[in-house]
Amino acid sequence: MLKFYNIWVLSVLALFYFGPIDWPGADRFAPAAVVLSCLGLFNLGSAVGERCPALPARGFDTFVDRRAAWWLGCVFLALTALHVQDITGRFILDPTAYSLAFGDVYSSYLTRLDERQSGAIAMLVTVAKAVVWPMIFLLIVASFRRNTKLLLFLIFPYLASSMMRGTDKETVDLAIFFLILSYYHRVLGRRVVIALGVVAFILMLFAARKMGRYDGIDFSCLPGSPDACFDFDNALSVYVSPSLEFLRITLTNYLTQGYEGLARATELPMRFGWFIGHMPPLQSALCSTVRVACEMSTYIDRLPDHGWDTSNKWASVYTVLATDFHWVLMPFYFFVWGIVFAVSEKSWLQNRDQLSLGCLLLVAMMIIYSSANMQLAISLDWIAIYLLLFGCQVARILSNRPQTAGAQVSSIRVPNA
């Protein structure tokens, strides 16, 4: 999997510099310097992690088959239904609320967000979801290939949330879950056709949703992205389909636009975020409840004044993290993640440690979304998982020191003569 992560990061970086979109930031070396240094330290951390002992198994198999797991799933379903209804006005258990008119769904969702007045009940639901989501996440990991009915029940609210908002995030998340879990369960090879089908479906859904948002609009460049322009006279459009040209530019825009934000952020002075700057939902919650960190100004907050609207554009995981770790120290953060990745992979392969498998999912989410945003801190739900699993795994690695030779000898019991 380490090879895939290297290929993924390098390919997207190359797409930013040499792809079909002429980004202004592609004339600067700063984005490449940041990305390559972080990738290099991630690989170094992985090499160090390979030398660490595997962690003992922490499994949740027995819980998966208990009635409590289903009740927990029901609680998550109810909380998700309340949250989605609050932000979209749609009820996920109402079959008539679903629609394939993706443009209308997304437009309605944005309008609802603008008009919505968040109250105490909505905040309680959000906090409750953040408490429950880590347990649901671990149940998804544990129920894969063990309890298919429970697995489908647990992911339904996640998928329904995507349909109610007309967004791609949840769908892509679930695809990553399926592919990573299949890979580490050694079933991806036998299901490669299914995996390819999932990828093709995601791409088709991505294109359909984006085209639905721009239905009836005549444009030569993506609205709001004057650098992302189409060439409907090229061979792909003329001899295959113009929709593939739309997909090519739109997908390139989504994969690489964060590096343009990164290029502009490197020109701004740093303002320390006290280690909550890379978790905007947490900073917002602290400000609204206890009036803490309200004056914080992150790179994401300041980029709109420098021509990059972060309300509808990404700025990469590196830009978000730099508020707390600076450009110089940020590679060390990835070094730690590299250790966590290698130890978690070894612990799963040797001991079937399901907590480590959950951490491997977190690594995949961070790396795959790295050119876009800090996916592990995009909501209070994900922040709860990020802090709990990452913190727990680092603590386990530090406490799981190999036995010394003297300790091993003293533990041998010599039989009486």
From TrEMBL:
The keyword Membrane applies. The keyword Transmembrane helix applies. Keywords: Membrane, Transmembrane, Transmembrane helix. The chain crosses the membrane at residues 7-23, 29-48, 68-85, 121-144, 188-208, 325-343, 355-372, 378-398. This is Oligosaccharide repeat unit polymerase.
